[in-house]
Amino acid sequence: MAQQVTTSEGEFGGRTAVVTGGASGIGLAVARELARRGARVCVLDVSAAALGGLPDGIEGLPCDVTDRESVNAALRGVEERFGRLDVLVNNAGIGAQGTVEDNGDEEWHRVLDVNVTGMARVSAAALPLLRRTAAEPEESAAGDGTGDAAAPGAAPRNRGVAVVNTCSVAATCGLPQRALYSASKGAVLALTRAMAADHIREGIRVNCVSPGTADTPWIGRLLAAAPDPAAERAALEARQPTGRLVSAEEVAAAVCYLAGPAAGATTGIELPVDGGMQGLRLRPAAD
Question: Is 87 within 8 Å of 43 (Cβ atoms)?
Fold first, then answer.
């Protein structure tokens, strides 16, 4: 039975958000948190079965990010259902294990097509809707409550239009057995900064969130396939200074910050949610 999401007129009240890969894991946690904070949320996911199990209050549309026609059809569906788009969360992605010797050309093409090119496809299809929203006057930004349009040449007043991409600490930390995955997330980080530069004058902010090892279904499958799942989990936890895996809900909170009005002056950044993996170098714990 689908779980219901309780919403309120919070910081995202009146806004519409799209979350790709939003039917499970981090994406589902993001969709739930955006809805809880007042957004109208539409999940785009390749799994029709997973879309059927979305919580009440969250809508879903089928979308294969590797297929431009599927992406364009999904964004047309968003426009038809909601009439606007304020927030895009590019979360769809797949994992890969191994060194450069272990992944063949077909797997390289597949992972990059989902994790990088798919993100570009969705963003390109969403930009006309995002631009239209960004061009709307916003009373809170006008300062005088008139809602008058901005002066010619001025930056758009609506500061609530944002894109948040899901990156990873693998983009900046050298992790073993993650060559292909790391390359794809390094590209996501570069793409995020390029998009931020391209669209800042259109009133569209672009940032990314970089989770550490998160407690998601993908990690669950890796652990289940390990010879000793408990030992493998302990090893993953030990490489994070906090000594535990990151929760999907913690990543969702970071995404909502970057997508929300409190981050109105923030664009082109990577926000790590990694238990200290990137920044801390701790001494070994004493016995």
Answer: no
Choosing from 35, 181, 215, 250, the catalytic residue is: 181
**Residue 41 resides in a domain:** yes
Tens digit of each residue's pLDDT (9 = 90 or more) over 86-106: 999 999 999 999 999 999 999
To the query of whether residue 181 is one of the catalytic residues in this protein, the response is yes
The token duo for 199 is 């669209």
Is residue 186 in a domain? yes
Contact of 205 with 160, CB cutoff 8 Å: no
Q: How far apart are the first and last CA of the chain?
A: 47
Q: Which residue range is the domain that position 64 belongs to?
A: 16-135+159-272
State the pLDDT confidence band at 158, using cuts at 50, 70 and 90. low
* 164's tokens: 């948040």
pLDDT, tens digit (0-9, with 9 covering 90-100), for 43-101: 999 999 999 999 999 999 999 999 999 999 999 999 999 999 999 999 999 999 999 99
d(CA 50, CA 52): 5
Per the domain annotation, does 286 fall within a domain?
no
Task: Give me the CATH number covering residue 82.
Answer: 3.40.50.720
**pTM (two decimals):** 0.88
Do 86 and 16 contact (CB within 8 A), yes or no? Answer: yes
